[in-house]
Amino acid sequence: MNDTVPLWTPSREFIEKSPMYAFMQRCNEAFGLSLQDYAGLHAWSIAEREHFWSTLWDFCGVRGERGERVLADGDLMLKARFFPDARLNFAENLLRNSGEGDALIFRGEDKVQDRWSWNRLHETVSKLQQAYRALGIGEGDRIAAMMPNMPETIACMLAAASIGAIWSSCSPDFGEQGVLDRFGQIGPKLFIACDAYWYNGKLQDVSAKVGTVAGKLQAPSMIVHYAGDADAVAAAIPGAKTFDAMIAPYQAKPVEFAQLPFAHPLYILFSSGTTGVPKCIVHSAGGTLLQHLKEHRLHCGIEPGDKLFYFTTCGWMMWNWLASGLASGATLCLFDGSPFAPDGNVLFDYAEAEKFAIFGTSAKYIDAVRKSGLTPRSSHDLSSLRLMTSTGSPLSPEGFTFVYEGIKEDIQLASISGGTDIVSCFVLGNPLQPVWRGEIQGAGLGLAVDVWNDDAKPVRQEKGELVCTKAFPSMPVGFWNDADGAKYRAAYFERFDNIWCHGDFAEWTEHGGLVIHGRSDATLNPGGVRIGTAEIYRAVEQVEEVADSLIVCCELPGGHFFMPLFVKLKPGHQLDDAVRERIALAVAQANGCDYCLAAHSYLGKNVARLSDAEITAARRGGS
After folding, report:
1. How far apart are CA 94 and CA 197, in angstroms?
2. How many Å apart are CA 74 and CA 388, to the nearest integer?
């Protein structure tokens, strides 16, 4: 592969048709600028944050009162407030469309299909809103859902946002304790769950788990029918009702939207550390909306009527990102289940049938398709597809190559990275620049992203910490049950004063793009040279016997870390000493002879086998 030539270069027509180009022209006209390219636009968006974010508000047609002030205390990360005088409602901005056109399209493997019009979505949200209020749920109350990625989940979230309640979700494949570790911290006033779900062609009964969780949360429960018997599940739980029974008493009417501050809490997302229960990260309605509009409209070029797909569960922040696509007028294409049931064509069948414009997935999914031998480029009509996004883990150079050789030649491939912490992306694609093999195109507009060394100095073409040096709207409101903000400060601001340190190990490229090498708190450091998890994965999976791999970071007493490597072998192979030796040597050789022996010695002692079920569970939801 010739890495001196981009994999894809946007045509002049592609650039000038993009919403990002139109936005750049608006900024030029409004402020007397002469911006010509992405580098100039990004630099201006950092230097003039107030102009940038206020222009974005107007360009995207945000519904609400913007207020006079755009940014208060902007030089102080922990005190900065964007649009402190604004009033808006998140759900109102997502429900701006009406009519019989498709708002939501759903497939549950090959078992279930459904379509919701904008009118049906409005009507369902209205009935749910009334049901919530009848339960006494209001501003600031929590609603927790253990649900598949299906239309009812979107409607339940929108109804919560419409009245100012706070939404939190996970997927139904979470273990009982995992659900309680999350929802038990936030005291929900309503628990929503499905009756069963499909995965890999098999019916998964969750009735016992739902009953146990509902009992321990001691909250009213609503059971949504999907693949089981909702009536039976609800009947077994004291005070529970089915979704249909909950909304049956109400007639649809115009949805009422509470006008709330920009920083009003919208979501609680969960991020696990190395010890203790998951952190409860609270995200604001205004920050989430504005950041997602920027990413969807400008970076992804979403136009009204586009079909937007992301392979995600409700336990991953990409579900929240996907849901916001409604605010750009997109039709959301939802999927729940295994992407290989009944076979590896299922998502490409879906893309062809519904004419996806944007196909979002994980790096591991792309790699799995590559290894399966499928070539969707030759088997499917993907002419409507203009953008493919990849996240969850770094996309390998081989993955980049496969997208262009095996999926579609003329497509923008955007590797993106950010996370639960900001419910969005720090670095991602843009339609104005080429795509280079193995590289993320650049930092997001309005985000002062950089890479620093341990001495707090910016570095170029050298590995370091991914940081953001100025405040941005989608910073968390804070952590739940963290009254003095100590946990929040410790998570992001202890490494560098007044600087967001994200915990990613990154590197600028000569093209102005970035490479993410994995989590900086999950790296090996033999001989003083840091090896990121992405570098290990890439080397391991070049070994002939290995089909997939997973690294787990475990904290030991005294602040030390142990990182065992698990592998899934191809059929017919055993994890014997010879295979362990080849794996260890591959990692050592791929990462430089100066620390070859250290890496070789470490990995040679810590390679274990992982079953198909274990590695599949670990990879779901971008983990």
Report:
1. 27
2. 34
Q: Report the 10 Å Cβ neighbour count for 182.
A: 23
**Nearest C-alpha neighbor of 232 from the set 219, 245, 220:** 245
Contact 433, 441 (CB under 8 A): yes
Phi, psi of 191 (to 5 degrees): -115, 125
CB 174 within 8 A of CB 149: no
Q: Which of 206, 213, 172 is nearest to 190 (CA)?
A: 213
Above 90 in pLDDT, residue 40?
Answer: yes
DSSP track, 257-311: ---EETT-EEEEEEE--SSSSPEEEEEEHHHHHHHHHIIIIIIS---TT-EEEE-
Whole-angstrom distance, CA of residue 92 vs CA of residue 163: 10
What SS3 class is residue 536?
A: helix
Residue 356's pLDDT is 98
Q: How far is Cα 589 from Cα 601, in angstroms, rounded to an integer?
A: 12
The tokens for 544 are 């002939």
Res. 559: pLDDT tops 80: no
Sign of CA dihedral 233, 237, 242, 248: positive
**Residue 175 buriedness (CB in 10 A; 0-12 / 13-18 / 19+):** exposed
pLDDT exceeds 80 at position 558: no
Beta-carbon count within 10 A of 605 CB: 10
- How wide is the angle at C-alpha 439 spanned by C-alphas 326 and 584, nearest 5°? 115
CA–CA separation, 597 and 619 (whole Å): 30
Strand order across the 279-284 sheet: 241-242, 221-224, 190-194, 142-146, 166-170, 265-271, 279-284, 478-479
Q: What's the angle, vertex CA 286, arms to CA 282 and CA 290, rounded to 5?
A: 115
DSSP string, 112-129: EEEEEEHHHHHHHHHHHH
* H or E element in which residue 141 lies: none
Q: Is the pLDDT assigned to residue 411 strictly greater than 70?
A: yes
Q: Which of 544, 550, 536, 519 is nearest to 616 (CA)?
A: 550
Q: What is the per-residue pLDDT for 553?
A: 62
Q: Taking the CA atoms of the chain, what radius of gyration do you get in angstroms?
A: 24
0.85 surpassed by pTM = yes
Amino acid found at 573: H
Please give the residue that has the higher pLDDT: either 282 or 553.
Answer: 282
